[in-house]
Amino acid sequence: MWLDYCKTFKNKIITEYTKFLNKRINIENPILFTEKVQWLKIYDSSFLKTFCTDKITVHDYVKEKIGKDICVPILKIYDKPEEIKLDELPNQFVIKCNHACQMNIIVKDKNNFNLSLAKQTLNKWLKEDYSQNIGYELHYKNIPHRILVEEYKENQGHSDLIDYKFYCFNGNPIFCQVITDRHSGEKISHYDMDWNYRPEYDWINFSSVSNLQKPKHYSKMIEYAKILSKDFKLVRVDFYEIDDKIYLGELTFTPMAGYIKYKNPNTNLQLGNLLKL
Question: How far apart are CA 132 and CA 137, in angstroms?
């Protein structure tokens, strides 16, 4: 039944792909990486992906696979915004919806935080079905909509956390996408598993950095990425390195909904050849 449901979105996914990337797609015989991401939406959206996309239940998956929870700690879980009480929370924290991306409220000082306005925003977010947004990332469909409050994390001396995002194909990390200066001129760079800069993976419309310092625990990140990606054809495993410790950010199964434009025109085919469906 679930596969039948996903198949009903095939024409919509084909239309959106053509609109965003200005090219036709053979969804039944995909070759390019971006095409294969669309195939995965239709034919590989599983319960396990939904479980691991949920920002709450992914903690259980990580603990089972690695033997400990390396996700950013959750302070509170709420069903409704009205349940949030500031006196239960520290001075700094992050509020998120568990069923979507980019539904985050960062609180650096709760004394200057407008909780009433935040509740209005959260009520709006909780009503949204993220699986029906542009891109049709269908594994978001059956996540129960809840609110979580995470610990606020930062690296002293840095304005933004650095994201280390490992693209894993068939259980093997292929390259690491590094996002820096997220709030002050975002840069997206790519490095292989030996920390060599790989400009062919860089995206159109984003600057990159060729001499970033390798994180101290890079080898351990690779080890964790291998473990957490074994159950999936494609997953991006995201980490932070904060205060000499690794934290998992999230598991992402359809990065950018597959609408990626590479600076190197050959990269889409090269990555497509590496990903086995």
Answer: 7
Average model confidence (pLDDT) across the chain: 96
Which residues on adjacent β-strands are paired with residue 76? 149
Q: What is the mean pLDDT of residues 234-239?
A: 98
Q: What is the pLDDT of residue 158?
A: 65
| CA-closest candidate to residue 203, choices 225, 178, 231, 222 | 178
235's tokens: 């997953």
Rounded average pLDDT over 156-185: 90
Assign 63 to helix, strand or coil: helix
Backbone angles phi, psi at 216, to 5 degrees: -60, -40
What is the per-residue pLDDT for 157?
64
Task: Confirm if 57 and 48 have CB atoms less than 8 A apart.
Answer: no
Nearest partner of 92 among 106, 77, 78, judged by Cα: 106
Yes or no: domain 154-274 corresponds to CATH 3.90.1690: no
**Domain ranges, ordered by start, for the chain:** 2-44+72-151, 154-274
